Amino acid sequence: MIPKPRTHPAPHLQIQRRLEADASYEKRYDPRPLSALDEDLPLAVVAAEDTRFFQHSGIDWKAIGEALDENRDGDDERRGGSSITQQLVKNLFLTTHSTYFRKAVELPLTYMAELILSKRRILELYLTVIEWGPGIYGAEAAAQYHYGQSAAQLTRYQAAALAACIPNPRVRRPPQMDRYARIILRRMKIVGPLRRHFETSKSRGTVGAPGPLAFMGNPLSTADGPPLQAAARSSAAEPMVPGVGLEPTRGTGPNGF
Questions:
Q1: Coil vs helix vs strand at 223
Q2: C-alpha 162 chain-centroid distance
Q3: Could you tell me which residues come within 8 angstroms of residue 124 by beta carbon, excluding any fewer than 6 positions away?
């Protein structure tokens, strides 16, 4: 029997607000802890949305700079530079409309979230609060809706295809995401070693809460050895393509990237 997760009052209230604003969708909300999910699904989401999630301290300034450069082209689809932690803060506490005031409030809240919550807890809440389909919230509800099976039984490919739908979940469907799912699968090979390094360092006590200027540097130092440094470089060099790690057309994405 799958254990019931801790209650998520804030995500529940935010989801309720969204559904009340758009009554055309039937609510499906099934929060589960990470331990109840297939381990590939959280990894696929990190690979799709925030490849440096285990390296940064809340804000990925490099990704933001890259997004600003690419968005100057004025294409219909816009690349988002927000980290998973930023997206969580937006979904829990702020509106999804992009304004200077929201950005000013978002930054300190993001750093506060990273100081208070573990990376695992941030990812757990993120998978709970984002929309995975029309009115579908929670990875378990998403797996049941799209595949008719539990999130604990997803294949690696199914996890990648689900993650590819996140930028525009009311439009995208996993069967249409083959190209993007394959890109995410490649990224998962890069993100996996970084996650294992982070968790191992955490258990040894060598990774602690970030200091005020931690976001200025890379947590992976020369002491981490060539394999981890190579993985970090590959993570940064992996190309961004339309549909993966991109914002949907402005104003249409319910997850507010």
A1: helix
A2: 12
A3: 33, 34
Cα–Cα distance for residue pair 175/165, rounded to 1 Å: 10
For 132-155, the pLDDT digits (tens) are: 999 899 999 999 999 999 999 999
In degrees and rounded to multiples of 5, residue 71 shows phi and psi of -75, -15
Could you tell me if 110 and 33 are in contact, meaning their C-beta atoms sit under 8 angstroms apart?
Answer: no
The architecture of the domain spanning 9-247 is Orthogonal Bundle (1.10)
Nearest CA among 30, 44, 40 for reference residue 155? 40
> What SS3 state is found at 119?
helix
In one-letter notation, the amino acid at residue 160 is: A
Q: CA-to-CA distance for 175 and 185, rounded, in angstroms?
A: 15
What 8-state DSSP symbol labels residue 206? -
pTM above 0.85, yes or no: no
33-91 pLDDT, tens per residue? 998 998 899 999 999 999 999 889 999 988 888 877 776 766 555 566 789 999 999 88
